[in-house]
Design goal:
6-stranded mixed sheet, Udp-n-acetylmuramoylalanyl-d-glutamate--2,6- Diaminopimelate Ligase, Chain: A, domain 1, 370 residues, 29% helix, 3 domains, alpha/beta
């Protein structure tokens, strides 16, 4: 099994197309055609993570934060730590792959795993992505409906939430008249034809549109398939930012702080109190998500957990919602468990002997003094 095969499976869950445009997700360093030995998961890459990968014979490292975020103008192996790590990656034939905002925005990703870690139930996105879907409308003869629809489904179209192979189909009349040099599947060249067709409508994510159209054309019987592509403003139910859910039972603010401290295994919480004497509905967003505070308030959350909260954001939230800064590392590192679970299941189903390791140390640069 090569590295690219593993990455393709991973990206079915966390497609790079949902990442922010300026985010450098995907392959960072290495050769995706290499065979996989073992895999190491970490939030970040540093010298200690690299040494552990070498020790455990891992030739694929998957991180959350991109190691190469900004363009590199030079590689100085004498004084630059980043350059030295790149040199060691190449020297040891280790491929580095990063899943950043695509992992933030996917179901079961960073925020969903954070919500699960603090025992929330009925978890959903706090804010859905929007304007990143198209409606593909295709016209095909009745006998070719299933072949055309299945080609679109297999290329990634027709997924709405927990439902796949979603489509709308309506019987229509199609007309055409081919030129003298045309080669129509139905009827004859230079003759006006009226045929029974089916109009198929299927939802497609923007990053899959080209591959879906290509797949559709490969099986469509017409020399010139008739199809339309409509840009949508719909909210994408499959991808979004943050998560929101409910605790199993009401907690006082102090009980909730103790609960969060216990399950995130941290003692470094910063917070401001909200208006609720009881905490039940909770919004979360791993990493820096202060921009979602108003979303959490609008959805009547009693508390919002995120990181990197500024002083004035605490001021604005005071007496409106319990706002907790639980730390950037602490709110994101739980997602490594979910990545491991997904890859372990994939490796098992493929009958491969590949080990998936989580980095045993911490890459958190922030220390606390008590």
């Amino acid at each position: 099994m090569n590295i690219n095969y593993v990455i393709k499976h991973f990206e079915k869950w966390a497609p790079t197309g949902v990442a922010l445009i300026k985010d450098n997700v995907g392959l960072q360093v290495g050769n995706p055609k290499d065979e996989v030995d073992n895999v190491l998961l970490a939030l970040d890459l540093d010298e200690k993570v690299l040494q552990q990968a070498i020790k455990k014979k891992c030739n694929l490292i998957i991180t959350h934060h991109p190691f190469i975020f900004n363009p590199i103008s030079k590689l100085n192996f004498d004084s630059s730590k980043k350059s030295q790590i790149i040199k060691e990656l190449i020297k040891n034939n280790i491929t580095l792959y990063s899943a950043h905002t695509n992992l933030d925005y996917t179901k079961g990703g960073v925020s969903f795993e954070l919500a699960s870690r603090i025992k929330l139930k009925n978890i959903n996105f706090l804010e859905h992505q929007e304007s990143n879907q198209y409606k593909l409308v295709v016209y095909t003869p009745e006998k070719n409906v299933e072949a055309v629809a299945n080609a679109i489904f297999n290329a990634g179209g027709g997924i709405i939430g927990e439902y796949s192979k979603c489509s709308s189909r309506n019987n229509v009349k199609g007309t055409f008249e081919g030129s003298l040099i045309s080669n129509p599947t139905i009827g004859k060249a230079n003759m006006f034809e009226v045929v029974n067709e089916v109009r198929i409508e299927i939802l497609v994510n923007s990053w899959e549109l080209n591959s879906v159209i290509t797949a559709m054309k490969l099986v469509h019987p017409y020399e010139e398939p008739a199809f339309d592509v409509f840009a949508l403003k719909n909210k994408n139910v499959n991808y979004g930012a943050g998560a929101i859910g409910n605790l199993e039972y009401n907690m006082t603010p102090n009980e909730f702080l103790a609960h969060v401290t216990k399950h995130l295994q941290t003692n470094g919480l910063k917070f401001t109190l909200g208006k609720s004497a009881k905490i039940k509905k909770v919004a979360v967003c791993g990493g820096s998500c202060s921009d979602l505070i108003e979303n959490a308030i609008a959805q009547n959350a009693d508390a919002f957990i995120t990181a990197d909260v500024k002083f004035h954001s605490f001021q604005d939230a005071e007496n409106r919602i319990m706002l907790i800064d639980a730390g950037h590392y602490e709110t994101e590192v739980p997602v490594l468990n979910q990545i491991k679970k997904i890859l372990d299941k994939f490796i098992k189903n493929e009958n491969e002997v590949i080990k998936i390791f989580k980095y045993s140390g911490s890459t958190n640069p922030i220390k606390f003094y008590y």
